[in-house]
Design brief:
CATH architecture: Beta Barrel
Shape: globular
Strand order of the largest sheet: 1-2-3-4-5-6-8-9-10-11
Structural class: mainly beta
CATH topology: Lipocalin
Length: 213
């Protein structure tokens, strides 16, 4: 996968993410920061904004998620952060680091691209939920004229660590994850990529958004 020079996000974005987390800190709520993963083997790198309907934890609701492949970081490494309605209807902040490493490229005898994905992050509230996801993402892209389409499937596991006094909640939890995603560009340069993904099973969520490269 070829690396590209990535656009700088607006200057206010890092400050906005920090503010969202700091405002959410006193609230008794958490959101799973990494669901859905939004990482296919050919997913674009750049600056993205997404709406997420979360459902991993009881009481989760809508959230806004920003993803950003920061210039200067190694290829395949990006940041993610945002805020939304967490457990109990309170506002929660979250953030983390995503990592993607290519495993296999499609070609003769190999119909799919495969990539290893992992990361680390947390949801902050009265308690803290630390999540370490890991898995494999597979997919294939097609293009015709200015249209580029890249569906993918991600499978893996998420390791949750709860910090704080959480009644009725195990301190360590391992949950299987299954994501279905789609990246779509309608311009030949793929400067704007429309994105959609859903997580199934224990870690449920739906996300839609756009990435600018």
């Amino acid at each position: 996968m070829r690396s590209r020079r990535l656009p700088r996000a607006p200057r206010f974005v890092p400050a906005a993410l920090a503010l969202a987390v700091s405002v959410a800190a006193p609230a008794a709520a958490q959101l799973a920061w990494e669901t859905p993963r939004l990482i296919g083997p050919e997913s674009p790198e750049g600056f993205g904004v997404h709406w997420v309907r979360a459902g991993t934890l009881p009481g989760d609701g809508d959230a806004a998620v920003v993803t950003w492949a920061v210039p200067g970081l190694p290829g395949g490494v990006s940041l993610r952060g945002g805020a939304g309605e967490g457990v109990g209807g309170e506002i929660s902040g979250f953030g983390g680091v995503d990592v993607r490493a290519p495993l296999v490229s499609s070609g003769p005898g190999q119909p799919f691209d495969l990539a290893w994905t992992t990361g680390a992050g947390l949801g902050a509230g009265e308690n803290v939920l630390i999540t370490l996801p890991m898995g494999v993402s597979g997919g294939r892209s097609w293009s015709s004229g200015s249209v580029w389409l890249a569906p993918y499937v991600s499978v893996g596991v998420a390791l949750d660590v709860w910090l704080g006094d959480v009644e009725g909640q195990d301190e360590f939890v391992a949950s299987p994850s299954l994501d279905l995603g789609l990246d779509l560009a309608l311009d030949a340069g793929r400067r704007v990529v429309l994105r959609a993904a859903t997580s199934l099973g224990d870690r449920q969520a739906i996300a839609v958004g756009a990435m600018v490269r």
